[in-house]
Amino acid sequence: SYGGTFEEYLKSLDILYVEDEEAVRELIEKRLLRHFGKIYTAPNGEVGLYKFDTYRPRIVITDIRMPIMNGIEMLEGIKEKRSDVKEIG
Questions:
Q1: What pLDDT was estimated at residue 20?
Q2: CA-based nearest residue to 61, from 53, 6, 69, 52
Q3: Dist. CA 49–CA 18, nearest whole Å
Q4: What is the spatial distance between Cα 19 and Cα 4, in angstroms, rounded to a whole number?
Q5: Secondary structure (3-state) at 37
Q6: Whole-prediction pTM value?
Q7: Segment 47-55 mean pLDDT
Q8: Which end of the chain is more exposed for a tag (fewer CB within 10 A), N or C?
Q9: Residue 17: how many other CB atoms lie within 10 Å
């Protein structure tokens, strides 16, 4: 159980946001930073999987259709590594 406020809890969460469209990625990153702690971003699933391995974020938000490695393939790779990650696709 978390003892702080809800806002403090949100700020304690780190998120990986994967989106191939740069303008959308930057906009959403700015919005997420208003409420959450650390935001990691990636332009495709391959980089997203690398950043997941490196930073182990608590939450993953991903686009599905992306070049190089799509969101579904990335999530399958993540689930092989850690099944408790939250995903929004």
A1: 96
A2: 52
A3: 9
A4: 31
A5: coil
A6: 0.86
A7: 96
A8: N
A9: 24
